């Protein structure tokens, strides 16, 4: 097959959907790989590194190769011009932001292009190596703590020096999924005293196993808060009020708060009110990892670091892109691992929706939007 890799066009998107290592493996599998010029530069992979592994480099916009590709690998949803230039029946695989993709899917259907959303990779054992949400969230959780440490005007670990003792930072992680658990582990490694909360009971043991204290309203609703897919349910207003009451006094004492709480397909739950921010000491830092989904903090401004009475709230909207080399390498590996599921024995494209992983990820096929999760 001819596999195309485009250069990302969204502002601040530094990742790329293939790295030299995955190109080598794709070519080893018998595919041709065509990389748009400079696609990997921002992530530290120049055209020459791809060429060295056997890829061809196409001009900006992919030139004549665009209409010849069987599959387009991308990170974010490509622009319409790129989709319109693909051949009929091609496949596009990327982080297509499926929950809000409805209107963006018309050009795919016009050309009978199959759009596959990496976000919809099911959370089953067989799909773990393809799970891009996990690979990216893990890096993002790490990076969130690094950003917090850089914004925080004090040291994270306890330091006993001849000139006096520096107290360890107190860090609180809200949402202990993939990103949150990595944030806990990173904050612990940096020497902070860490606590965490989540609405899913399974998170309790995981938080404790990382040496952090678990804080949550553990009522009947909490015991039933996990969906079959492992995600959190939207909690009732009553639960959220109890949760806010419990966490308010805790947040007031924290130096660093990292929020990661998400509910698939919905705006992020608001966990930190203006009053809670005002209760924190000047110098404290909040990194709101849910900023792109509306934020977990009422005062978060997506894409900005705001200062509220000395408390800084960072609303980075694309933390994985702040580690573009590793984020690209892991994402590219997720795509490589997925490819066999849509490759027939003769090495040609087969979109087999009898496979539950493929079926979950397909948004459009044969000119129709087939996923009922697209809104
Ligand atoms: P996510 O990014 O959707 O959400 C982040 C966290 O926020 C979740 O832990 C969620 O429970 C929590 N949350 C939601 N509302 C909250 C609230 N009001 N207060 C506090 N926390 C709140 O989650 P994720 O990182 O994608 O992980 C979800 C689950 O899926 C986890 O249990 C994870 O271990 C599991 N998972 C399984 C696999 C697999 O292959 N089996 C792969 C990846 C993740």
UniProtKB/TrEMBL annotation:
Residues 4-140 form the Alanine dehydrogenase/pyridine nucleotide transhydrogenase N-terminal domain. Pfam families: AlaDh_PNT_C (PF01262), AlaDh_PNT_N (PF05222). Its EC number is 7.1.1.1. Keywords: NAD, NADP, Nucleotide-binding, Translocase. It catalyses: NAD(+) + NADPH + H(+)(in) = NADH + NADP(+) + H(+)(out). InterPro entries: Ala_DH/PNT_CS2, AlaDH/PNT_N, AlaDH/PNT_NAD(H)-bd, NAD(P)-bd_dom_sf. Residues 149-315 form the Alanine dehydrogenase/pyridine nucleotide transhydrogenase NAD(H)-binding domain. It comes from the Bacteria. The transhydrogenation between NADH and NADP is coupled to respiration and ATP hydrolysis and functions as a proton pump across the membrane. Belongs to the AlaDH/PNT family. This is proton-translocating NAD(P)(+) transhydrogenase.
